[in-house]
Amino acid sequence: MVQGSSYICSLVQSLRSASFPSKLANYSGYTSRAASNSLRHPSTYSNKIQFENSEDEYADVDWDKLGFGLTPTDYMYVMRCSKDDNFKEGRLSRYANIEISPSAGVLNYGQGIYEGTKANRTEDGRILLFRPDQNATRMMHGAERMCMPSPSIQQFVDAVKETVFANKRWIPPPGKGSLYVRPLLVGTGPILGLAPAPEYTFLVYASPVRNYFKEGTAPLNLYIDEEFVRASPGGAGGVKTITNYAPVLKAIARAKDRGFSDVLYLDAVNRKYLEEVSSCNIFIVKGNRISTPAISGTILQGITRKSILEIARDHGYQVEERAIPVDDLGDADEVFCTGTAVGVAPVGSITHRNRRIEFKTESSLVWKELYTTLVGLQTGRIEDKKGWTVEIH
């Protein structure tokens, strides 16, 4: 989830003279259903970019050995604007390192946010995105919190579509993974005093990935570390700022040294309510009731979280968002995590104060039922009646 931070940087000088303009599709009253409008084939651009090995259906990748690591693809997308302006025009570029001022706002004051979404290849050869408008909306919300201009929903979705289309040979075969797409918004203008940067760069790159956790779909073993908290009231825990992630690295490293998969954090005030895992939201199941911590400013509004809540209601479960005391874990039947990178991941145990609490991982499982529906929608195996998927032609 924190992959690729070294690529947070501004546009190289050479991009200013790049020979092809981005063609942003025109949307009227944008919705995720309307976003299925096709991205135009590169041959229709007035100034063409030559797509490398465009005749190859797949890149030279051992898809069976794919994990969740960076595999550089062919192209990235870059767009920028000044502090008091709006984003106007972006363009595709070869994927490469790019220069940045040592006094850039993102390097000195952490002024940056990011998103994560995926493109999947269906059995019949279509390419689908999943709810990219929700990522765009969340980035706009985060940008407002971090005093940054943001691309519009149309610009965001078009940039993601162009990036995916340009790198389509890197989308794994059906059942072998996804193309993880990472949009970044960072303050790249130079600034010395503590203030918003004078210039901003919106950048999108992609990498083929498979399972986020090394356990794959095997149950996770989480650890509640009471020394560290992820976010506090009044902070930025509810937005996807880059500053939320470096502080949890020490807690994760310590947990993994002890043999755990990840850390489950408690609230910063009472140290008794569940919040989220380092890289994903958390759910508990008791009978027909599914509970997840309520959004209160310290928990990220996950798009997979939001989708699973709706899917669970469709399946007849009682769904609630509430403050969940850590003691409720002892009475739970199942626990699972959700996130763009992790999908839906079952939890086998949670260790708290040297007490290991185990959960059901066999027979009929709620998490598996919800996961099957989610992936079915994302990969086109289930008809999308919600308008959540966006097809790229």
Written description of the protein model:
A hairpin with a 2-residue loop joins strand 15 (343-352) and strand 16. This protein folds into two domains: 73-207, D-amino Acid Aminotransferase, Chain A, domain 1, CATH 3.30.470; 218-374, D-amino Acid Aminotransferase, Chain A, domain 2. Mean pLDDT is 87; it is low at 1-48. 17% of the residues lie in helices and 25% in strands. By secondary structure, the protein is an alpha+beta fold. The modification N6-(pyridoxal phosphate)lysine is found at residue 240. GO terms for molecular function: branched-chain-amino-acid transaminase activity; L-isoleucine-2-oxoglutarate transaminase activity; L-leucine-2-oxoglutarate transaminase activity; L-valine-2-oxoglutarate transaminase activity.
Summarize this structure briefly.
The protein has 393 residues and is an alpha+beta fold. The protein has helices at residues 105-109, 132-145, 153-166, 249-257, 303-314, 366-378; strands at 75-82, 90-94, 112-114, 117-121, 127-130, 178-187, 199-209, 220-224, 262-266, 274-277, 281-286, 289-293, 318-322, 334-339, 343-352, 355-358, 389-392.
The CATH C-level name of the largest domain is Alpha Beta
How many individual β-strands? 17
| Mean pLDDT across all amino acids | 87
Q: What are the secondary-structure elements, in order, as H or E?
A: EEHEEEHHEEEHEEEEHEEEEHE
General form: globular
The third-level CATH topology of the largest domain is D-amino Acid Aminotransferase, Chain A, domain 2
Protein name: Branched-chain-amino-acid aminotransferase
GO molecular function: branched-chain-amino-acid transaminase activity; L-isoleucine-2-oxoglutarate transaminase activity; L-leucine-2-oxoglutarate transaminase activity; L-valine-2-oxoglutarate transaminase activity
Catalytic activity: L-leucine + 2-oxoglutarate = 4-methyl-2-oxopentanoate + L-glutamate; L-valine + 2-oxoglutarate = 3-methyl-2-oxobutanoate + L-glutamate; L-isoleucine + 2-oxoglutarate = (S)-3-methyl-2-oxopentanoate + L-glutamate
Pfam families: Aminotran_4 (PF01063)
